[in-house]
């Protein structure tokens, strides 16, 4: 599995800036931990001090970077983080997941479920209910429940303790991390004669191709129609997505974000950690919602937002800077008042 520096450069589509082409690299490591036979990368200026002190045998750096530790070879790449990811795939190939088809004897698969036992893998404790369909190459983890008439595409990977409720649709190459819940009831009640009466949630969830949903994230079924997670979208751990939400293609939704009912996110929206989005709001394409942003009304795409309610990010930063100056301003006012009273 070892690679020469020249082989590494070809693998990651990079150029050797410094170092002999025959230098042998045998593994990967962080900047502050890698040794003389290992590869690391500089993807963020925050880690420049670690980079300058690294003992790594080789480092992938942004194009234009030529200085660095004398003991390290350098490979320049357009995107060092992505390039390093390509190298990681090579070095961990020996320990990568191996798909071994078959149904474990302690799995419970209904006779009416549609799947090819020779082309899927069902782990111990998993339950596949009546009418469910599972595409070739998909793997259902331990204690995962696939509800009635759920349809799952090809080459999906569901880890342990995932729950997919009845009639939900899962596309191809979807990854569901442990504890993800797809299709739980939406949170809907009406107050009738002083009591909260549950509103039936009869819709489904549609998870499109190449989506990944993080551990203990919940995606509620629609009250009617569909809750949709668009193609290529990546959802982090501990996210709540409510009923009838429509998330576009290739969005990023980060941990502890809460999205209320009937919200629509256009394509390529980024919602950072702990973002809150109120119900029935539309967010335009390529909008970026910084951490803890609160969205209470429709916002246009192509801009970065912060604060609560959401507004221009730089304006929010200036406001915060002004707030930090308040203690000094208060002291100045007190001093001026004292001076005025003495006069």
UniProtKB/TrEMBL annotation:
<keyword id="KW-0677">Repeat</keyword>
<comment type="pathway">
    <text>Bacterial outer membrane biogenesis; LPS lipid A biosynthesis.</text>
</comment>
<keyword id="KW-0443">Lipid metabolism</keyword>
<dbReference type="GO" id="GO:0103118">
    <property type="term" value="F:UDP-3-O-[(3R)-3-hydroxyacyl]-glucosamine N-acyltransferase activity"/>
</dbReference>
<keyword id="KW-0808">Transferase</keyword>
<keyword id="KW-0012">Acyltransferase</keyword>
<dbReference type="InterPro" id="IPR011004">
    <property type="entry name" value="Trimer_LpxA-like_sf"/>
</dbReference>
<comment type="similarity">
    <text>Belongs to the transferase hexapeptide repeat family. LpxD subfamily.</text>
</comment>
<dbReference type="InterPro" id="IPR007691">
    <property type="entry name" value="LpxD"/>
</dbReference>
<dbReference type="InterPro" id="IPR020573">
    <property type="entry name" value="UDP_GlcNAc_AcTrfase_non-rep"/>
</dbReference>
<protein>
    <recommendedName>
        <fullName>UDP-3-O-acylglucosamine N-acyltransferase</fullName>
        <ecNumber>2.3.1.191</ecNumber>
    </recommendedName>
</protein>
<keyword id="KW-0441">Lipid A biosynthesis</keyword>
<comment type="subunit">
    <text>Homotrimer.</text>
</comment>
<dbReference type="Pfam" id="PF04613">
    <property type="entry name" value="LpxD"/>
</dbReference>
<keyword id="KW-0444">Lipid biosynthesis</keyword>
<feature type="domain" description="UDP-3-O-[3-hydroxymyristoyl] glucosamine N-acyltransferase non-repeat region">
    <location>
        <begin position="22"/>
        <end position="89"/>
    </location>
</feature>
<comment type="function">
    <text>Catalyzes the N-acylation of UDP-3-O-acylglucosamine using 3-hydroxyacyl-ACP as the acyl donor. Is involved in the biosynthesis of lipid A, a phosphorylated glycolipid that anchors the lipopolysaccharide to the outer membrane of the cell.</text>
</comment>
<dbReference type="Pfam" id="PF00132">
    <property type="entry name" value="Hexapep"/>
</dbReference>
<dbReference type="InterPro" id="IPR001451">
    <property type="entry name" value="Hexapep"/>
</dbReference>
<feature type="active site" description="Proton acceptor">
    <location>
        <position position="243"/>
    </location>
</feature>
